[in-house]
Design goal:
Blueprint lengths: L2 E9 L30 H10 L5 E5 H10 L6 H8 L2 E4 L11 E3 L4 H11 L2 E5 L2 H9 L5 E7 L18 E4 L4 E2 L5 E8 L13
Parallel strand pairs: 1-5, 1-6, 2-3, 2-5, 3-4
Antiparallel strand pairs: 6-9, 7-9, 8-9
């Protein structure tokens, strides 16, 4: 069965809204669209490309799909070639007209749809798609969580865990690496069970 990877760029206080550009998602009057650009460097770029090795499907929310579909078909670098080649699946409650080659909409039953996708693909990546990601977190419908945490605080904006999550245990599966501009990459795997508890007074 394939793996579902969630890839997110976030500030230190958990804001993941519109990292890529001013017009990406101005909802709520968000004025910091494109906050990632001044802090992006070659190390982060290499980490992103390495993380895409083996990717054989994209799973996106509607807003992120629209942004990708307007940009990547017109590019000719390695990432564009990958995105344009592999199947793209879109999660939305609305009926969509999907013009990007290889795109299709998943059914309204998210759990059943993801089970089907896992049977078809080895590595499905969810990039951005913050609203859709809240569903994946709440229902534990993911296998890997890849976070790039940037050394800024924005205070307001859509948060990574805005929708709340059930108690969930994760395992760090790679050494934490900081880029020259201070972005810290953290890769986690979902593990069985819920967080344990104990008594710190009994330690030491």
């Amino acid at each position: 069965m394939g793996l579902i990877h969630i890839d997110l760029f976030t500030t230190l206080d958990g804001v993941a809204q519109a990292p890529g550009g001013p017009e990406e998602d101005p909802e709520g009057g968000f004025e910091f669209g494109g906050w990632q650009a001044p802090l992006f460097d070659d190390v982060v770029g290499e980490q992103v490309e390495t993380g895409m090795v083996g990717m054989d499907a994209l799973l996106l929310g509607r807003r992120t799909y629209d942004i990708f579909a307007s940009y990547w078909p017109h590019q000719d670098n390695g990432i564009a070639q990958l995105f344009n080649r592999i199947p793209k699946y879109v999660a939305s409650r609305q009926s969509l007209n999907l013009e990007w080659d290889g795109s299709s909409q998943i059914g309204p039953d998210v759990v059943a749809s993801l089970r089907e996708l896992r049977n078809k693909h080895e590595n499905i990546h969810v990039i951005g798609s913050l609203d859709f990601v809240q569903t994946l977190f709440a229902e534990r419908l993911f296998d890997r969580l890849n976070l790039w945490v940037y050394p800024i605080l924005l205070g307001r904006g859509k948060k990574v865990f805005a929708g709340g999550v059930g108690p969930t245990s994760l395992q760090l599966i790679e050494p934490v690496v900081a880029s020259p501009k201070g972005a810290v990459m953290q890769r986690y795997a979902l593990v069985d069970g819920t967080p344990g508890v104990g008594d710190m007074t009994e330690i030491g």
